[in-house]
Amino acid sequence: MDEVDRAILNSIQGEFPLTSRPFAELGAKLGLDEDEVISRLQILKDEGTIRRIAPIIDVKKLGGASTLVAMSVPLDRVDEVANTINMYPEVSHNYLRQDKYNIWFTVSAPSKSRLGQTLKEVGEKTGCPYLNLPTVKTFKLGVKFEV
Amino acid sequence: MDETDRKLLKATQDGIPLVKKPFAEVANSLGISEDEVLRRTRGLLDEGVIRRFGASIAHRKIGITANAMCVWNVPDERVDEVGNTIAGFDDVTHCYARLRTKDWKYNMFAMVHGRAKQECEDVADRITKAIGIHDRKILFSEREFKKTGVRIE
Predict the structure, then answer these.
(1) pLDDT tens for residues B50-77?
(2) Half-sphere exposure of B147 (CA within 13 A, CB side)
(3) Among A63, A68, B13, B69, which one is most buried in terms of CB atoms within 10 A?
């Protein structure tokens, strides 16, 4: 990764141009031609630095519901339980953390009832106690990294 | 938000193609015009259905390997003030107030990313000092099992 890659990464995290030729527009700002922007992005994507260029969807605006779940899992069952949790497409993030509650995952579902159903199923399948910690208020939400 | 909007979100949520005219390609797959794709995408962004349109970066790949979930036990009457203070820290990417439960007293959550654990701890210490609430915990992520982003069906 060189300075040009860094400049590209910094420019595409915020407002991606919603125009016919977005990569030409990005290139114009960075002094690069369209083909070079695309080929560099392709490499960054292939090596896994960029996951995707995509819309980040607010499921609540679509009538959906989401929450954060903290589960208390015996250490020797961590992999198995994480796999069970990951099988649900409603689970978007899942991390191991050091605490009595050691598996933390976020769930987004198209409705409140579906969310409740998913939690109930995960609880039953794993047999592990969990906390349901829905958001009361959002103060900040903006994942942007200076590269 | 109609059926076409939903199809558009589904067609783009895993990433637009890296070609000269990505939205024309999406339009083709949906049988609508490029103009309509752009107009609808901007509309969804204005309505807030799309929070942000942009790249998701694998932060581990760019050297940001420490990911700390910092939590504080904030008195209910101070939640708004403290949340706004924490949100003002550049190193905080997410900040939420969450429901308290009887087995979990921490109601304020901030995600802090850094190049090393110490960097995250320093940020947490600065926040703790700024808000004057010392009942807190830092939970580093030890492993990432999944990170797909929120998807619709």
Answers:
(1) 988 999 888 888 888 899 999 999 999 9
(2) 14
(3) B69
Identify the residue among B13, B18, B47, B107 best suited for mutation to test binding to A, counting A beta carbons within 10 A and taking the highest: B18
- Which residues make up the CATH 3.30.70.3460 domain(s) of chain A? 59-133
Nearest CB to B59: which of A91, A95, A145? A145
Give residue-wise pLDDT tens across range A53-104: 999 888 888 888 999 999 999 999 999 999 999 999 999 999 999 999 999 9
SS3 label, residue B68: strand
The yes/no answer to whether this complex scores an ipTM above 0.85 is: no
HSE (CB half, 13 Å, CA atoms) of B40? 21
The number of beta carbons lying within 10 Å of the beta carbon of residue A57 is: 23
Measured in angstroms, the CA of B126 and the nearest CA of chain A are apart by 18
Do residue B62 and residue A38 have CB atoms under 8 angstroms apart?
A: no
Beta carbons of A20 and B107 less than 8 Å apart: no
User: Do both B33 and B94 map to the same domain?
Assistant: no
CATH of the domain at B95: 3.30.70.3460
Beta bridge partners of B146: A94
